[in-house]
Specification:
The complex is a heterodimer.
Chain A lengths: L3 H10 L5 E5 L1 H9 L6 E4 L6 H11 L5 E6 H6 L2 H9 L4 E7 L2 E2 L5 E2 L8 H8 L3 E5 L2 H13 L4 E6 L15 H17 L2
Parallel strand pairs in A: 1-2, 1-3, 3-4, 4-8, 7-8
Antiparallel strand pairs in A: 5-6
Helix pairs in contact in A: 1-2, 1-7, 3-5
Chain B lengths: L7 H10 L4 E4 L6 H10 L3 E4 L6 H10 L4 E6 H6 L1 H7 L8 E5 L12 H4 L1 H8 L3 E4 L7 H12 L3 E5 L9
Helix pairs in contact in B: 1-2
Classes of the chains: A alpha/beta, B alpha/beta.
Chain lengths: 193, 169
């Protein structure tokens, strides 16, 4: 099992100038390591739609890599997106799934099919060009540069240790301004307007 | 001979005039001729989705990348997309126009299909402005909808109240 903090450090080393779309637990950990916050979009309360937002960016800017940091519970809410992504074959699309088997944000209840679902297998069957699964950070760190050098769509499943939030979900007027602001910051960075 | 009320080609011409880059869609029975007309025009990329709830988030990503997408789905698909419309449409002030197939619409009332009966109350409840198309003479409502979406930075619906005509007959 891989610690979230270790996984995001490894991913950030391979980021380059990619746009990064995160959701749920991944957003907090990514925020601690990201060095290009004007290229980050954290999807809050998105009910599994990070992969769809990422596909939109990837189709709109095929010259730039797009990294999606998804969760297993989130992907299960939007499982058809695997087929939608594969149907477009975006060569710049890199889809990471943090697979801890639970809905961490709501207290750790198991997701349907936990310990049975093979997300890399689902991605391959949907038509992703490549898919991988890692359970130790050393192998992830060794293999990821080669994976990111190949064209997508790629799915990388990360068997993760569960981290439960310490407090309630952040729901303030300020927190709800972050996602629209992030979309506009990315748009400004990518287009200049 | 079939009466032509709403030509798909007229709508596609408006989309081209607006500089639309992508149509994100899940085809429905009302939009077959629209789908064919877009493919024929060749100026707009079609992004098919497996479920309508993907469409608005994909539009949000395309908009962040500097593109100008529209969404084309049926009213029943809009209901399925409810949380996406809330979170990634209204919630991010996304200036996107959604063409919604008004399945079950009868302009003289007597509407048994709940998909039609609930549509306008639904949009009113969510605060989504909308424009209705029934005839080619309504096509000027399309640029109005785009201006509205851009001016207020909000999702705007264009309700398609009839089946697009098959112009080949």
């Amino acid at each position: 099992m891989i610690e979230y903090g270790d996984a995001v450090k490894v991913i950030s080393k391979e980021r380059g100038d990619a746009v990064v779309i995160t959701t749920m637990t991944q957003s907090g950990f990514w925020g601690q390591v990201s060095t290009h916050k004007n290229l980050d979009i954290g999807i809050a309360n998105g009910m599994g739609k990070a992969s769809s937002v990422g596909l939109g960016v990837a189709l709109g800017r095929p010259d730039r890599k797009v990294i999606v940091l998804d969760g297993d519970g989130s992907l299960l809410m939007n499982l058809g997106s695997l087929v939608t992504v594969a149907g477009q074959q975006p060569a710049n699309f890199y889809h990471f799934v943090f697979d801890n088997g639970v809905y961490a944000i709501t207290g750790g209840q198991p997701v349907p099919g936990h310990e049975m679902v093979d997300y890399a297998g689902l991605a391959r069957a949907a038509g992703y060009r490549n898919a991988y699964s890692f359970a130790d950070v050393e192998t992830l760190a060794t293999e990821l540069p080669g994976i990111m050098a190949k064209p997508g769509p790629v799915l990388v499943n990360i068997k993760s240790k569960t981290v439960l939030p310490r407090g309630p979900v952040d729901q303030t007027w300020e927190s709800n301004k972050r996602m629209p602001a992030a979309l506009r910051a990315v748009r400004k960075t990518l287009t200049g307007s | 001979m079939q009466e032509i009320r709403l030509r798909a080609s007229g709508i596609v011409n408006e989309l081209v005039r607006e500089g639309i880059t992508h149509v994100i869609t899940l085809p429905d029975s009302e939009t077959k001729f629209m789908y064919d007309a877009i493919r024929k025009a060749g100026d707009i990329t079609v992004v098919p989705v497996c479920r309508e709830g993907e469409a608005i988030p994909i539009a949000a990503g395309l908009w962040a990348a500097g593109k100008k997408p529209v969404v084309i789905i049926q009213n029943s698909g809009l209901y399925e997309s409810g949380d996406a419309l809330r979170g990634l449409g209204i919630g991010v002030n996304l200036p996107v126009v959604m063409f919604i197939g008004y399945r079950g619409y009868k302009r003289h009332g007597d509407t048994p299909d709940t998909a039609a009966r609930f549509l306008e109350p639904y949009l009113h409840t969510w605060g989504v402005p909308f424009y209705l198309l029934e005839y080619d003479s309504d096509l000027d409502r399309i640029p109005m909808a785009f201006k509205h979406a851009a001016r207020d930075s909000t999702p705007v619906a264009v309700l398609v109240g009839v089946e697009y005509a098959d112009e080949s007959v």
